[in-house]
Every structure is written in structure tokens, then in C-alpha cells.
Amino acid sequence: MNDQLSDIAPPTYMDIRDAAERIGRHVVRTPLLACDDLSERTRGRIFLKAEVLQKTGSFKYRGATNRVLQLTDEERSRGVVAYSSGNHAQAVAAAAQRLSIPATIVMPRDAPKLKLENTQSYGAEIVLYDRFTEDRASIAHEIAERRGATIVPPYDDPRIIAGQGTLGLEVAAQASDHGVQLDALLCPCSGGGLIAGTALAFAETSPSTRIHSVEPAGFDDTARSLKAGIPQKVAPDARSICDSLLSDSPGKLTFPINRGLLSSGLVVDDSEVRSAMIYAFRTLKLVIEPGGAVALAALLAGRFDASGKTVAIVCSGGNVDPDLFRSILV
Amino acid sequence: MNDQLSDIAPPTYMDIRDAAERIGRHVVRTPLLACDDLSERTRGRIFLKAEVLQKTGSFKYRGATNRVLQLTDEERSRGVVAYSSGNHAQAVAAAAQRLSIPATIVMPRDAPKLKLENTQSYGAEIVLYDRFTEDRASIAHEIAERRGATIVPPYDDPRIIAGQGTLGLEVAAQASDHGVQLDALLCPCSGGGLIAGTALAFAETSPSTRIHSVEPAGFDDTARSLKAGIPQKVAPDARSICDSLLSDSPGKLTFPINRGLLSSGLVVDDSEVRSAMIYAFRTLKLVIEPGGAVALAALLAGRFDASGKTVAIVCSGGNVDPDLFRSILV
Q1: pLDDT tens-place string over residues B295-326
Q2: How remote is the C-alpha of B260 from its chain's centroid?
Q3: Are A284 and A35 in contact (CB under 8 A)?
Q4: pTM confidence score
Q5: Of A1, A84, B257, B289, which residue is least crowded by CB atoms under 10 Å?
Q6: Which residue is closest to A178 within chain B, CA to CA?
Q7: C-beta separation of A273 from A301 below 8 A
Q8: Which ipTM value was assigned to this complex?
Q9: Residue ranges of the alpha helices (H) in chain B?
Q10: CB distance A329–B322 less than 8 Å?
Q11: Cβ within 8 Å of A, B 257-286
């Protein structure tokens, strides 16, 4: 299946501009917040892209919207299928619902309850699978084939990458509005769609900004792949509370982009993620899910030296179960 | 003490414009978020002023900053004194610290721990009192007199009201940016400084917008005072989880403004406030404290019929103790 991707052209800067135009009235232009307390702590100048305020609670709504808006009428009538641990699921379900497109979402049985409930609330049909024994892509492709439906992949699709890249366009423009030039941008990374699109946007609008991926320990496939120059896989026994960042290898379409445009990959452990979530609760007043908090965690834990630099961090999602959040607030 | 207030002129629209100019580079222009889910639920068009993202986690930083920036050099050297249940405390402490002004804050012994800790973290000296047996204003005035320090009152001061009113100016301008004309604005109310300043801003910039105060049950002194036409007090045994909205009567300076400009006062109970906080966590990804959530609660609980209307709600503060938040998330 994925081998066909070698024939697909990666998105260009103009694709991201087009995506921004296409999805503009559907998505939230989430704020880039100047963070005084973070700036003092790090002796840098820190801005936070509060993408938790996006519709469906994560950046995934950008890519999903950009994809479904490009379906033909016939494709719309046959529906869409997606596989996702939760944020892409909600995004595809919500974007499809908005256009009255039937959606089927393949989700892991152990996905956060909030994500399962929300996906269902957007009217999608949910098919559960076991994350450790079954292959979600095969399940999704089988359903799609049976129904003639269109697969909306989580990251390895130029329209998805372009949609996520609109976040990068916004950050670059908002940094200018704040009157600053960004030295660096830290962004959560799983399959790599968000950071690939964002890096493409910055390569054109602010090429001197260094782009760093941030991953949870154990799922640092992009960090290791960037170092090795070729894709690396995670160990099968790896575990993390960052349920939205558990992809086991860099994307086929995203990695070549990221290899060319990222400066390095940072890694944080779960306890640093918990601390970042508590900080966001106490000081920022934002609800950030584990995977959405890794860039903030990298900054707070000193995994990136922001001293003297102007830095943007992306907080990419906020869909966290009340039970997990309560256990973290202890 | 308060009788002197009859001689003090209330702030004008120009005072609010001047305040916006004065504090502009010190405060956050918090976003006015379009809320699709709230709009669907209420069959209205709902916008949320996310003032929890303000420095120190509440709108109080606006008024405090506007006040301390107008101190003379001599006044600055002698310091400031404030009394507050927590949000004004943090705001005065932080605004004073920024200008290296010594600050003493009189706080209730049962104030939320987070608010006490934060106030201390801004370098203020804290004096504790018993909210049920002692008079905080007398304690503060005694300290101020002894030290020649300046009292920064929580609401009955034209510079404080003008500072808080900059929130109203922003909402009016941001509604225009969204291309909408607001039919109504719902705003939390305690002493009434925020809503008085906001109502003054709207009277000039959007006079057709109806302004409604929202208070917790038991502390509905403004709602009852608006009905009666003269100030009413709360019962001494009233209790609420809305620790930031426990003032026992409308302000001397704020009430005449509010009597002239507010359409009505809404009231919500503690269970409606809890539900609103959970909704903010799950759907908005914002941490809102009980008192900051009353306008959202009024909307969600159907205390205000938003059907067919364009409505802004103010979420005024997010300083909530982790323990309380955990108990509410159950």
C-alpha cells in the first residue's frame, strides 16, 4: 500500500497557501501567545501557539478539512475512512459531518475515552482494533475498498501535510505581528505531518528559523532517523502516556521533507510531559494533552536552550481524559 | 472611608481609551474565540473572551496595571497595599513587581492556595485575615496609613474601572473583526468593576449591545440591586464555590454606572458553575475558575436565551486550585 507513496509528489509552499485559502473560514486562527513567565524561566523570548483551541481540540482539523473539501461529489457520497488514535479520528469525523459525508473511523480499543466519545458525537461509525496485534491501515483499506470510500490518511498525503502546514503559515505571520523574528520553533512530532507542513511554510516565509521536532522517549523514531539519515523504527515494547504520538516510524512522504528541513529532534520523558501539563494548568490556563505538551515539556525541562533566543512552541492538542488529567494534577 | 467616594467622578469612555493606550504593551490582548459547539447548543452565535489567558490569569491585571502606572515616583517608593480574595491580589503584586514597587496584600486566610502562592511568587508581602470576622478594608487602610503607601482598591476607583474596561473595548473591536454585531454580552460580576468598565466601553462603541451581569446564587446583590434600583446586600450566611465573586454589595462607584447601563442581572448556582468548568475542560480546552465561569454557566444552563442572537461571554479568570479542579472533574 504505502509503496505507492514513492510516486506521490510532496506538497509545495503554494499548496499550503492554497490550503490556507481553502480552509480559512472553517478553522480557528488560534492565537500565538507571548509567555512572560516562560520567557523569564528560560531567559529567552517565548511564544506559544495555542492550537488546543482549534476545532476538535487539535491541529488535525486543518488537514482533515483540507482533504475532504477536495473530494468530488461522487467521492463525498461514498464516504471517507480514517485510522487514528484519536485526534485525526475526531477531525475527520467533524470535517466529514460538516459536509454531510459518511465517515468510518478505525480506532484502537485503548484510545482515550474522550476521543472515542467525541468521534462518535460527530456522527462517525467507529471500528475498534487492538493496537498491539492488528494493523489499522489494513483494516481501514479493506473497509474503504468494500464501500468505494476514500481513505483520509493521518499524515502521508500531500493534502493532509499542506493542511497542517497552515499552522506554520499562521505562526510565521503572527510572529511578524508580534514584531519578532523566530530563531527556533519546537513542534510535537509523530508521523510528522504537522512539522513537515510547518517546516515547508517556514522554509519560504522565515528560512532562518530552526525547526525542531519533539517526541516522547521510546517513540523518538524521527530524532533517530534524522541522525541516521534513514528511517528508524521504535521498539515494539515502547510505551508512553503520549497517546497521540505513538507512530512507530517516520512517514514515507513526511520524512524526506523533515530530513531536509529540520535542525534536530528533541526527546522528553513522560514525567517531563506531566510537569508541562501541570504548568499549563497552573500558569497558562490551557488544557494540553500529553502528546500536545511535548514541545512545552522540552522547553521547561531544559532539553532546548532558549537563552537569548526567540522561540515558538506548538501545543498541538488538548484532548485528555478527565481521569488521566486528575491523576496528573495530584 | 468609602463615603469619600461620593466626591469621585466615575470614569469616562475617554479614560478607558487612555487606559488602553497606557497598558497596551503590558497586557495580553486575549482572543475572542468563535465557539461552534456553544453556538449549536444555544442556536445562537457565541463568542468567548478568553481572559483566563491574561497575565496573572485574570482581568484584574488590567486595572492594577492602569493604577500603578499612574503613581508618582514618590508614591512608588512608598509602595502599594491591596485587599483581595486572590485575583486582584496577584494582579497588584505582579504589576507592582514589574515596576519594582513594594506591595502588601491583605488576603483571606481561606483564599485558594494557588492564589496565595502566586501572590507570594510575585514578591508581595501577604497579611492574612479572617473573612467572616475581620474587615479587610480597615486592615489595609491601617497598613497604608502607617507606611504612607497607596491603597489599590479592587473596584471602587475610576482608574481600576477604566483599566478593566479595556476588556470591553477589545471585545467590541474583536467582534467587528469577526464581522458581527453583538446583541448581548454576559459578564461575571462581583464588586462590578469589570462590567462597569465594559458597559462604559460598549455604551460608546456598540450601544445596542445589551449587557448582563452574572453572579453566583446567594451573591446576587447586583441582580437584586438592579431590580430594586438601590444597593442590596447579600445574606451573611451565603456561601459559594465562586471565591472571586463573594463581595457582599455592589460598589459605591460601580453601581451607579451599572444601574444606568446594564439590562439585567443573571444568577447561576454552584452546580451549573461546575458543569461549565467541565465543559470548558472537555470542549474549550480552557481552565476556568468557578467565578470566571459564571457567564458560560448562565449560557449552558439556559439562564439566558441566546437563540438567534449573537452573544459574547466573558471568562474572566482561571486561577483554580488543583484539588478543587480534580474534585470537579469527577
Answers
A1: 999 999 999 999 999 999 999 999 999 999 99
A2: 19
A3: yes
A4: 0.95
A5: A1
A6: B25
A7: no
A8: 0.95
A9: 13-23, 36-42, 60-68, 73-78, 87-98, 113-121, 136-147, 158-177, 193-205, 221-228, 254-261, 270-279, 294-300, 322-329
A10: yes
A11: 278, 281-286
